[in-house]
Amino acid sequence: MSQVAVNDSVADIPVSEAPSPMAVALVQLALACGGFGIGTGEFAIMGLLPNVAGTFSVTIPQAGYVISAYALGVVIGAPVIAVLAARMARRSLLLLLMGIFALGNILSAMAPTFESFTVLRFITGLPHGAYFGVAAIVAASMVPVHKRARAVGRVMLGLTIATLLGTPLATFFGQSLDWRVAFTAVGVIGLVTMALIWYYVPRDTVSEGASFMRELGAFKRPQVLLTLAIAAVGYGGMFAMFSYIADTTTGVAMLQPGMVAVMMVLFGVGMNAGNVVGSWLADKSIMGTIGGSLIFNILVLMLFSLTASNPFMLGLCVFLIGCGFAAGPALQTRLMDVAADAQTLAAASNHSAFNIANALGAWLGGLVIAWGYGSASTGYVGAFLSVLGLIVFAASLRLDRRSRG
């Protein structure tokens, strides 16, 4: 196994010591496997809520608290773990994070009470953001600078494939057999990921000067805060739409309930397409990709609200909104660029920001529905959030130009 330090860019490593393309591909595969497990575990619960509610004799809305508990774990865990683990080698940190994730899912499958299950979902969410952040840094550090976003995108491909393959399979077997089987399977994926990381990810050393305070310094950098704000506000739109896609499909487009699964597949296909194309575009222009995706989201989300009653247009818009995930690798890479020597905290916080976007989008979408505007109006909510994100993006771009000029 290669012993190249993952703290340096391949561009700075002698050719004789640079990892081979196969070694890089295997590292990306190992890290993506973890993303697949995390994505499957995060989204499968949404289809298994009735089963969980039945087991613990609670209502479905009460069972929904476990989703909030997991999301809260992601938001809190990402920055806290990144700071506390500042002096830990990244390979060791990845193993620890995936170990917590695997154990959390296995114990979730064994939870005797609803209260213990909720606590375990919170704990399982803690390593989510930090894992993706550290994995992105490791993947980007093993390729030349002009290929970083594509490396990050390949790691995130595990997450997007989970929405298309892992989540439906976990939901199917969880409903057919027992929901506990689904969480056990996700835990096993976590253990497999640990083995792959142990075998393929090269050992690294802690960078000189790494510390608790240095990582916290990321939040003193305006561009870090602005980039996180873009993610937290600007990308709440897809969640505003997707949170209520079932109601839009059956109540607005007047399709059969079975078509909800088709819409979810279309969204997953869009996410995968957006991730691949967005990674390639980000290596050409990071800021161009972020700004372009925000404008794209505004147009597509408005089109969604205008045409949701048409089944064909609904499916097309759901796919295109999923493509908005194209900004994911670009935002992750942008954070690594502007964080300087506090990359771990900044990169990990990206997923906290996206979970805030999830909560914000779902809340605002639910609000306009409660006001009587209908589920199709969630597209207008999403477009509004994208406009706000575009304003923050413009401020970031202006600050960039002023610092150079």
What does this molecule look like?
Residues 1-16 have low confidence and may be disordered. The chain has 405 residues and is mostly helical. The chain is globular. It contains 17 helices and no strands. It has two domains: 1-208, Growth Hormone, Chain: A, CATH 1.20.1250; 211-405, MFS general substrate transporter like domains (Growth Hormone, Chain: A, Up-down Bundle), CATH 1.20.1250.20.
Provide keyphrases for this structure.
405 residues, mainly alpha, Growth Hormone, Chain: A, 2 domains, 79% helix, disordered N terminus, transmembrane, transmembrane helix
* Count of individual beta strands: 0
What is the terminal-to-terminal distance? 46 Å
Model regions low in confidence, pLDDT < 50 over at least 5 residues: 1-16
CATH-assigned fold name of the largest domain: Growth Hormone, Chain: A
Radius of gyration: 20 Å
Reported for the largest beta sheet, the result is: none
Portion in beta strands = under 5%
What is the CATH top level name of the largest domain? Mainly Alpha
